């Protein structure tokens, strides 16, 4: 399964989700390809230093360069998980023929209509909270994918 995580600038939430989920999927033996992109990303931007540090505390390396979500990304993905409803709507508006595979991460993993808080500009503690929120959601996602695999 090819999964892409999407946020705004692809420097905080989606790269953290990508790195966290790669780690979780590897531990659980899930056969997934994972990447991230942004709906308004500058090409070749760096990940936030606090995002890097928050993941480093979990022994997860974040070597990341930002990228803009492209039509090729959308077509190649089996599942597109956004951080907010606004990201979801932007993608559906731009790539409407693929709307059946676009969900917010909270909608898909936890069944709730809420956004993942944006840590951009916050303290390291804010980034830790975002990391932990994502980690909980990604563990739920992994459980769902594991159940689907076992069927």
Automatic annotation (TrEMBL):
InterPro entries: LMW_PTPase, Ptyr_pPase, Ptyr_pPase_sf, Tyr_phospatase_low_mol_wt. Signal peptide: none annotated. Residues 124-151 form a coiled coil. Residues 1-144 form the Phosphotyrosine protein phosphatase I domain. Transmembrane segments: none annotated. Keywords: Coiled coil, Hydrolase, Protein phosphatase. The keyword Hydrolase applies. CDD domains: LMWPAP. Belongs to the low molecular weight phosphotyrosine protein phosphatase family. PANTHER family: LOW MOLECULAR WEIGHT PROTEIN TYROSINE PHOSPHATASE, LOW MOLECULAR WEIGHT PROTEIN-TYROSINE-PHOSPHATASE ETP-RELATED. This is Protein-tyrosine-phosphatase. It comes from Bacillus atrophaeus (strain 1942).
């Amino acid at each position: 399964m090819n999964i892409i995580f999407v946020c705004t600038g692809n420097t905080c939430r989606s790269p953290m989700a990508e790195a966290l989920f790669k780690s979780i999927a590897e531990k659980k033996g899930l056969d997934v390809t994972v990447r991230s992109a942004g709906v308004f990303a500058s090409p070749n931007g760096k990940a936030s230093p606090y995002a890097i540090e928050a993941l480093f505390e979990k022994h997860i390396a974040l070597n990341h360069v930002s990228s803009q979500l492209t039509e090729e990304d959308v077509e190649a993905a089996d599942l597109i998980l956004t951080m907010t409803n606004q990201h979801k709507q932007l993608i559906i508006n731009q790539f409407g023929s693929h709307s059946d595979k676009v969900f917010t991460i909270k909608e898909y993993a936890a069944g709730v209509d809420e956004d993942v808080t944006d840590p951009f500009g916050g303290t390291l503690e804010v980034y830790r909270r975002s990391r932990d929120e994502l980690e909980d959601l990604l563990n739920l996602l992994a459980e769902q994918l594991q159940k689907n695999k076992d069927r």
